[in-house]
Structures are given as C-alpha cells and as structure tokens.
Amino acid sequence: MLPKKIEKLLQEQIEVESNSSYGYLAAASWCEVNGMEGAAAFFYNQSDEERVHMLKLFKYLNESGGHALVPVNKKPKGDFKNIIDLIKYFHESEKSVSASVNKLVYLANQEQDYTTLNFLQWYVTEQHEEETLARSLQDKIKLIGITGNGLYLIDNEIGKHVAKKKPTAMNMGGGEEA
Hints:
Blueprint: H1 4-33, H2 37-63, H3 83-110, H4 114-144, H5 150-159
C-alpha cells in the first residue's frame, strides 16, 4: 500500500505529465500552422510521450493500491513569438517536470518507499535526456540563427529528433523507451 503522501504526489505528477502533453500539442499546432513540419512532428511526438508518461504513473498508482484520477488540464500556451520562444518554453517545461519528479523521488526516499523509488528512476533518466535535448536545441538555434535559411535548417534539425518508435499505451513497460 502506498503512503498517502506518495499517492498525493503521484496524482500531482499525473497532472504535470498531462499538462505537459497538452502544452506540446499546442506547440505542435503552432509549428504546423507556421510551416514548420519537422518541429510540428517533434512536438506531436513529445505530446504522445508525455501522455505515455502520464499513463505509466496512472497504472502504477492503481496497481500499488492507490486510485489514479483523471487530471484537470490547464489551458496551455498556444502562441509563441518565434521558434526561439518555443524551444525556451520546451526547456522550461522539461525543467519544471524534472523538479516535480525530483520532489517525488525525495519523498519516496524519505518514506522508505523503495518500490516507488525504483519505479521513479525511469523518470529521472528520461528527464535528464529531455533537458539535455532541449538545451542542445537551444544551442543549435543560437548557432544557426532564425534569419534567411536558418529557420528552415532549425525546422529540419528539430524534425530529426522525432522518435522512430512511437509511444503507445501498449508499450509502457518498466524499462522500455517511450
């Protein structure tokens, strides 16, 4: 049985992941209507990934004696000044998700809930990868610039990061890449 404090934070993390999914869906739409097909594909994929992250938490919470509830989503930011603003949003979003995961890890350790702590290690690794990717994209935008052919090159570069394996609710197992 999960400690109530852990159950509460897991439920909050479900909301964080769901809001992140909707935020990236809005980002994908903005990219698509602004002619950035590569970036749109990337953010549609990111939205799917965040939903899978949410579902993993949902399933874990239910299997561990808790009761996962469907989260209420905040209206996401849907308009960006430019691609720099969008990638900054992506990076800040990932840092926020990481902070939330770290809060959960800290509490699981304090509560000596080693099963949850072990489960959360996948999220710790995933967040490190996401933050690294966001920083890398910011650095590349600085190098390339957004004038002239720069925006085209950036769109192509972001599009290269679309996962070859689409995440689904069916491949949510412990160590699988999502």
